[in-house]
Amino acid sequence: MKGIKVSTIFSVLWFILLLSRIYVISGVYSFPIDPTLIQIIYVMGIITLSLVVQKEIFMSKKNDIMRAVIVLFVIYWVLFGFIFVNPVMKEYTNGMVQRQGLFLAVVIVTVSFIKKQNLFNNFVRTSFSTVSLVLIFQFFTNISDVTKINIFNLFNTETRSRVNFGLGHYNNLGAICVCGLILGSLIVRLKVAKKKEKSIIYCLMFLMLLMLLGSASRNSVTGILIFVLVEIYLNLEKYALGKIYKNFIKIIIVMAVFIIGFWGMSGISIENLLIESNRMTLFSVALPTFFKSGRTWIGLGLASGEIYGQNLTSYKTYWMDNGYIYTLITSGYIGAIIYTLAAVLLLWGIYKMSKENQLGKIIMGIYIMYLFGALFETTLFNGGVVQNYIYIPIFLMCTSNKFIKKMKNIPIRK
After folding, report:
1. What is the mean pLDDT of residues 135-161?
2. Best exposed site among 25, 90, 101, 371 by fewest CB in 10 Å?
3. 104: Cβ–Cβ under 8 A, 6 or more apart, which residues?
4. How far is Cα 136 from Cα 83, in angstroms, rounded to an integer?
5. How far apart are CA 182 and CA 189, in angstroms?
6. How far apart are CA 158 and CA 222, in angstroms?
7. Sequence spans of domains, the chain
8. DSSP string of 20-31?
9. For residue 268, what pLDDT is reported?
C-alpha cells in the first residue's frame, strides 16, 4: 500500500481493539463507541487489509497444528453455542455465543494476518505499548493506591491489602501486569529494541511489577515464578554442569513448582487454602450438581462464570474458579475432550519449537504458566479475559511449521 505501511495500519487497528478489550473486561469501559462495534470493525478491517495486500483472507491450506487447534475452537463454539444448547440456559448461552464468537474471529484474523505478513514482533511490541499505556494512565490517575501496597503480607490470607488502580477486580489487574511483564521480556530478548528503548522497557516493567504486587493476586505472582522456573529448567543444558547436578536441579525445580502451585506460598494447608479462596465448593457443590444433572456428556450449558457464580441459572454451583472444571461442567465430557485435545496440540507444537530455538523455550514457559493459571480462574481459551487476546495468538503462531522454521536461526537473548 502506498504511503502507509501495512504494519502501521495493523498496529493502529490492534491498539484500538486491545485498548477497548482491556477496559471492557475490566468493567470500566467509558468510551463513546460500542465495544462490540470496535471488534467488528477490527475484524472487517483486517479482512479488507488481507484482501488488498495478499489477495486472500484465510491461512494456507497446509495442515499444521495451528490450523487444527483453530478448527477445534470453532467446533467447540458451534457445538455448545448452537447444537447442545440447554433450553433453560438459552438466554445466557446467546451472550456467550456472541462474546466467544467475536473473540475467535479476532484471534483467527489476527493470527492469519501476522503469519502472512511476518508481523509477530510488531504484534508483541504493539501489545506491550497498549498494556503499558493503560497501566501508566491507571497508575497516575489512582496514585493514592500506592500507599496501600504492602508486599510483606502478599500471601497472608488475613492481613494482605489489595489495590486495583481502577481496573476492576484485583486478579484482573494482576493478569494485565503479568502480560506486560511477559511482553516486555519478549521484546528485550528478541533483540528488536535499541539500548535507550530497553531502558524505558525496564522502567515500565518495574512499574508493572509494583502494580502486580499491589494487586496481591497470588495466581499472577505465583504464575510469574513458575514461568521463571520452567525457563531455568528448559535452559539447564546450556550450563557447564555435570549430568548429576543438572538432574538434581531439575528435581528441585519440579518440587518448587508443585509447592508454589499447591500452597501458593501461603503457609496453610491445601484444605484451608481451598476454603479460604472459596474453591472448596467446586467439589462440594458444583461437581455434584453436574453429575446429578443428567447432562454429563454435553454439560449444563454455556454461560459466563459470573452467571454461574451468582446462581442465576437453574443449577446451584457457586463460583467455579477453575478453567478445567468450568469447561467440564458447562460443556460436559465432549467439551472437555475437545479443549483437552486443543491444549495438548498446543503443548506439542510449542514443545517442538522449544527444541528448535530459544524463543520456543520462552513460549513454553508462558504456556505452562497459562495452564497453571487456569487452575484458579476460568481463563482456559475464554474470550472474557484480557490475557487470551495476547497469549492465544502467540501460542498459535508458535505451533505453525512455517513460523518455527522462520524463527529457527533468529538470535534470541538467553
Report:
1. 80
2. 90
3. 73, 74, 77, 383
4. 44
5. 11
6. 18
7. 64-117+279-413
8. HHHHHHHT----
9. 42
Cα–Cα distance list, 27 to 59, 169, 385 (Å):
34, 9, 11
pTM comes to: 0.90
Length of the chain: 414
pLDDT number for residue 141: 95
Could you give the CA distance from residue 139 to residue 137 in angstroms, rounded to a whole number?
5
> Could you give the angle at the alpha carbon of 219 between the alpha carbons of 234 and 201, nearest 5°?
65
- Written as one string, the DSSP assignment of 21-63 is HHHHHHT----SS-HHHHHHHHHHHHHHHHHHHHS--SPPSS-
Rounded Cα–Cα distance for residues 396 and 106 (Å): 13
Residue 52 burial by Cβ neighbours in a 10 Å radius (0-12, 13-18, 19+) = exposed
Measured torsion, CA atoms of residues 30, 35, 37, 38, in degrees rounded to the nearest 10: 100
What is the rounded distance in angstroms from the CA atom of residue 407 to the CA atom of residue 190? 10
pLDDT at residue 311 greater than cutoff 70: yes
Express each pLDDT in 81-90 by its tens digit: 999 999 999 9
At 398, the amino acid letter reads C
Distance of CA 331 to the CA centre of its chain: 20
CA–CA separation, 30 and 203 (whole Å) = 28
Judge contact between 164 and 215, C-beta under 8 A: yes
Higher pLDDT, 317 or 246: 317
Place of cell 504486587: 213
